[in-house]
Design brief:
Elements (H helix, E strand, L loop, with lengths): L1 E2 L15 H10 L4 E4 L13 H4 L4 H25 L5 E8 L4 H13 L6 E4 L3 E2 L2 E2 L4 H9 L5 H19 L3 E2 L14 E2 L13 E2 L5 H4 L1 H17 L2 E5 L1 H4 L9 H10 L4 E4 L12 H11 L4 E6 L8 E6 H5 L14
Parallel strand pairs: 1-2, 2-3, 3-4, 4-7, 7-10, 10-11
Antiparallel strand pairs: 5-6, 8-9, 12-13
Helix pairs in contact: 4-6, 6-8, 8-10
Bound molecules: zinc ion (ZN) (2 copies).
Pathway: Amino-acid biosynthesis; L-histidine biosynthesis; L-histidine from 5-phospho-alpha-D-ribose 1-diphosphate: step 8/9
InterPro entries: Histidinol_P_phosphatase_HisJ (IPR010140), PHP_dom (IPR004013), Pol/histidinol_Pase-like (IPR016195)
Catalytic activity: L-histidinol phosphate + H2O = L-histidinol + phosphate
Length: 336
């Protein structure tokens, strides 16, 4: 089994446990491949998070992010070599994509470290330069920056994602619909304009697929998926959405249907762990999602035959996936 996206408390402020403990847990659970993809540093102080600045100030915090990242790469390499007979560790990085400058900076970092970084998880965490997965207040501020027009906010998200896809061509596209994390389930929206409001036409967002409701948004999703297919990327099914109490993983089944149709169903699995308890979290539900809800024919994964090799994308049949010995591990538990 595989996970293509993880973090640790050693190298990111919002992580909880040491990287070594996370890898130990991945070994215990019987992963074949576990990808270490720490966030790449941010270089603009306006994108620092409060916990990064605390006690050190802006300049030092920026320096620390850089140092943390190079220490991460060194450590990950050590683990990879040491564990090569136990588990296949693939080293990558998750791109933040705060804005275009940051995407360009990401390209430089990837180029500079191309001997170590074998692939990237391309994720969008900001819209209009405001983080959308940090807390409710920031998310609300982001919506307000679009005059409370949720449709415009999603359009901006998928436009920035397209910029990132074109400039970086990440092998794995991260949490495809992250904007839903802090979208309150009882939000009412005008289906025509996309404005969050309570008028006689407004509907509750949790009762509808926003992708089906708004053709403009759907067309952007389709354009992005066709592009991912064109350069040979994959879309992760990320179980952290379930860990964070969303109804579905990222992406939701409405987008997954489009991935099947326009991106050959090129899905990989990720737990996006930030702590030991997150390793393989909700994977049993992910299995049901893949087998019963999405009814996929294949599951994709990243493969690296030799530690020095470049990585390739491979697939296994759904029967191979369903019958994998990983699922028999008694340590695997359902998430609440
Ligand atoms: Zn992310
Ligand atoms: Zn992540």
């Amino acid at each position: 089994m595989h996970s293509h996206h993880s973090h640790s408390g050693d190298y990111v402020a919002h992580g909880a446990d040491p990287l070594e403990d996370i890898v130990d847990r991945a070994k215990q659970l019987g992963f074949d491949t576990y990808c270490l993809t720490e966030h790449m540093p941010r270089f603009d102080k306006k994108y620092l998070y409060p916990e990064e600045i605390e006690g050190v100030g802006n300049e030092k915090a920026i320096d620390q992010l850089k140092q943390n990242f190079s220490r991460f790469l060194g450590h990950a390499k050590q683990i990879k070599t040491r564990e090569k007979d136990n588990i296949n560790i693939v080293i990558g990085t998750e791109i933040e994509c705060c804005d275009i400058d940051h995407i360009e900076y990401a390209r430089t970092i990837i180029k500079e470290n191309r001997d170590t970084i074998k692939f990237t998880v391309g994720s969008i965490h900001h819209i209009n330069e405001i983080p959308i997965d940090f807390d409710q207040l920031s998310w609300n501020r982001c919506l307000a920056s679009f005059n409370n027009n949720l449709k415009d906010m999603l359009i901006s998200y998928y436009e920035l994602q397209f910029e990132m896809l074109q400039r970086v061509q990440p092998l794995v596209v991260g949490h495809f619909d992250l904007y839903k994390l802090y979208l309150p389930r009882n939000t009412r929206v005008d289906p025509l304009s996309g404005v969050v409001c309570e008028n006689e036409n407004s509907v509750v967002v949790s009762e509808f697929s926003l992708i089906e409701m708004w053709e403009t948004v759907r067309n952007l999703v389709i354009r992005n998926l066709k592009y991912i297919k064109l350069y040979g990327g994959t879309v992760e099914i990320n179980s952290s959405g379930l860990r964070k109490k969303l109804k579905e993983p990222y992406p939701g089944s409405d987008i997954c249907q489009l991935v099947k149709k326009f991106c050959d169903g090129r899905f990989v699995l990720s737990d996006d762990s930030h702590a030991v308890a997150h390793v393989a979290v909700c994977y049993l539900q992910l299995r049901e999602y893949i087998v019963d809800v999405l009814q996929l024919q294949n599951v994709y994964y990243i493969s690296q035959e030799d530690p020095e090799d470049t990585v390739t994308v491979k697939s296994m049949s759904i029967d191979e996936f369903k019958n994998h010995k990983f699922w028999n591990n008694s340590m695997l538990s359902r998430c609440e």
